[in-house]
Amino acid sequence: MGIYRTVAIIGPPNVGKSTIFNRLTGLRQKVGNYSGVTVEQHEGQIKGTHTKLIDLPGVWSLEGDESSHSSEDQCVAVRALRGEIEGQPRPEAVLLILDATQLHRQMALARQVISHELPTLVVVNMVDLLAARQGYLDPLSLAQTLNSPVVMVSAGTGSGMESIQRFIGAKTPLGKKHLLPVMQAHVSQRHVGCPRSKSEIENEGLYRRPLPSIWSRRIDQVALHRIFGPALFFIVTLAVFQTIFHVAAPASDLFQNGLTKLGVWLGAYIHGSVMHSLVIDGLWAGVVSVLTYLPQILLLFFVIALLEDTGYMARAAVIADRTMVRFGLSGRSFLPLLSAYACAVPAIMATRTIASRRDRLTTILVAPFMTCSARLPLYTMIIAAFIPDRPVIGEFLGLRACAMMGLYGLGMVAALITSRLLHMSLLRKDDSSFAIELPEYRMPLWHSLGINLLDRARIFVKQVGTVILVTSLIVWILANFPVHHGQLSPIGDSYLGSVGNAIEPALRPLGLDRNVGVALLTAFAARETVVSTLGTLYRTPQIGVALRGSIGLAGALSLLVFFALAMQCTSTLATVRRETNSWRWPLFQLVYMSTIAYTAAWATFHLSLWLL
Amino acid sequence: MKQDTIQLSELAAGDHALISQMEENPHLCYLQCMGFCPGAHVEMIRRVSGGSLSIYRVDDADVALRQEAAAMISVRMEG
Questions:
Q1: What is the mean pLDDT of residues A497-517?
Q2: Do A279 and A270 meet the contact criterion of CB atoms below 8 Å apart?
Q3: Average pLDDT per run of 10 along chain B, which is 79 residues long?
Q4: In angstroms, what separates the C-alpha of B58 from chain A's closest C-alpha?
């Protein structure tokens, strides 16, 4: 049992807050969103207690007006400390995490937190680094200065963690519980506010800041060099890209094949054609489409967490900043957007590393324009069927490769133009990040990284997976019902077929027919199924030949443009809903992208008819 | 000594300066928490990202600031 029912954990970014949270709670964690905002809410149960630990967002300060940097994070932190968050009790105690190597910059936050008059334990982390670089801290004097108990820990090695557990009341190796004295019964408001001058703790002699990390500065001479910096950035980018395509994609395929075989095996035990189709073609296909993304998500998050934990991500953001700013994005948008070439779902989840709300929202909204791997089967099939295999630049570049590159380019241009438009309209007032702190390079903490990866997997399967399963089931019912004499309808005669008939008049101006319309509808469950659905509808494996007869070259080009620009992915919409904590943005995305896709496809069709 | 005061964004790589004044702006508290306080010593390390950002060393920490943010801080040259 713990002394406190709810304890909040707070501190600036990059101080090891998550590591301490993970060490205290292990896998007993729950991830959600604070209501009405995009800030993620982590809760956990402290090992050996019934105490709930709430991880508040990383903040540099609790002061400042609404428009300050990371204001959404600040607002959440302040409201949580005051007990103003709906459905969440006011914490009964606070763990304030500070970095021993940066203490001189964090005293203002310490005073601001303590001024909330909650029992506060000041946890000074990374004391091993402080000692290694000849720094010094007198914890007793610091406790007197802050009027709060102080413990010194190293979350990386786990040393000192038992002091935190004593404060919380969890059982320690000694098996005893202690109630630490709460000293800050009344805190002087004299020092609370933004720092106005140099740190007072150094002047008072209770703290000597450590020597700067020579390694960090040496590495930065290369990582931020005018020529070597962008070169290193290019190599890292290439490595991420290779990981997504050459490691994650085959892993996903393997996983998918395994799950499909398992489905076939399971199917042998299900009797009755309707039940078999429902379980295997409906539900199991949905499960497979959810789980297929998992290897990609885990690998991508592993790479991104590695870059973040080592400190290189901040340097990459600095290098990419100039290019991204031109289009209303920030340097931190680069890697998520790059990963959207594999799949928009992990890309959108990866935008968590972007501190600015505007930059994060913009990145989330434009990511689905990037050409994801699920679009490739249709691209490949149509290009092979309609574009002649003719050289453009000798043997190096053919017309088909040009067409494929054109489609990649189309998505990218649409993303950049949208980002500019958002910057000038809906997201104009929000402030972008304008300062990037360059943390010292560190070795990643594998234990914490592993727990974070498990967290991501759990969020994805639970929250996104549920939506995909429901969508798969709805599409299956529409594609197989009504039932005649105990037999399911062929897709052409199903409800989905009727919907196809209904939308056909809207597709004619794009040069598309009813079969293409039905296939596009099934894409909402899984984009990559479009080709196989077309095969079923045209009743031939020679889909290219069938399309040449039905929609012709102008229709095929129009279909490519529509497919490149339309928002046709329920998984993405569900992820955007989760990450933005609102239906407003996914609905905006659906309407905006569909309008753009329809208009561009219409223009392509008519231009092609006129030119070709 | 008024004429010695320049904007932080005007420093060249290797220049050292003391922060003399900070313009009132919504980011003031955040900048101050980063170490950009009046009286603090700051060193311009290098321009990066084609000059759109500069790295400053303040309080022994390196921070990349956009030019528009650096222009809100007045400094007095040292050395």
A1: 89
A2: yes
A3: 78 92 78 85 88 88 88 88
A4: 10
CATH number (domain holding residue A104): 3.40.50.300
- In tens, the pLDDT along A451-479 reads 878 877 877 777 666 766 777 778 778 88
Task: Please indicate whether, in this complex, the C-beta atoms of B52 and A325 are within 8 angstroms of each other.
Answer: yes
- With 0-12 / 13-18 / 19 or more C-beta atoms within 10 angstroms meaning exposed / middle / buried, residue A366 is buried
Q: Are A516 and A538 in contact (CB under 8 A)?
A: no
Per-residue pLDDT reduced to its tens digit, A68-89: 445 577 888 888 888 888 778 8
Separation between Cα atoms, residue A562 and residue A367, nearest integer Å? 16
A381 lies in a domain? Answer: no
Are residues A438 and B55 in contact, defined by beta-carbon separation less than 8 angstroms? yes
The topology (CATH level 3) of B2-77 is SH3 type barrels. (2.30.30)
Contact A438 B64 (CB under 8 A): yes
The first and second tokens of residue B52, run together, are 């759109």
The model's pLDDT over A298-309, given as tens digits with 9 standing for 90+, comes to 887 788 788 888
d(CA A513, CA A537): 11
Contact A340, A372 (CB under 8 A): yes
- Residue A11: list chain B partners with CB under 8 A: none
Q: Spell out the domain ranges in chain B.
A: 2-77
Q: At what angle are helices A357-366 and A584-611 packed, to 10 degrees?
A: 40
pTM attached to this predicted model: 0.75
Neighboring chain B residues of A77 at a CB cutoff of 8 Å: none
Cα–Cα dist A91/A9, whole Å = 9
Q: Are A201 and A107 in contact (CB under 8 A)?
A: yes
Cβ–Cβ gap B65/A220 under 8 Å: no
Count Cβ neighbours within 10 Å for each residue of A100-138 and write b for 16 or more, e otherwise. Answer: bbbbbbbbbbbbbbbbbebbbbbbbbbbbbbeebebebb
Q: What is the mean pLDDT of residues A153-166?
A: 87
Does residue A60 form part of some domain? yes
pLDDT for position A330: 79
Q: What is the per-residue burial (b if ≥16 Cβ within 10 Å, else e) of B6-29?
A: eebbebeeebebebbebeeeebbb
Rounded Cα distance between A297 and A304, Å, is: 10
A102: closest chain B residue by CA: B61
Using an 8 Å CB-CB cutoff, list chain B residues near A194: 28-29, 32-33
Measure CA A565 to chain center: 21
Q: Is residue A119 part of a domain?
A: yes
Mean pLDDT over A273-295 rounds to: 76
Of the pLDDT bands very low, low, confident and very high (cuts 50, 70, 90), residue A380 is confident
Q: Give the number of other CB atoms < 10 A from CB of residue B51.
A: 9
Residue of chain A whose alpha carbon sits nearest to that of B40: A198
Cis peptide before A505 (omega within 30 of 0): no
pLDDT at A157: 86
Q: State how many domains chain A has.
A: 1
- Assigned domain for A448 exists: no
Q: What letter does residue A312 receive in the DSSP assignment?
A: H
| pLDDT of res. A39 | 63
Helix (H) or strand (E) holding A587: helix A584-611
Cβ separation B69–A434 shorter than 8 A: yes
Q: Which domain holds residue A118?
A: 6-211
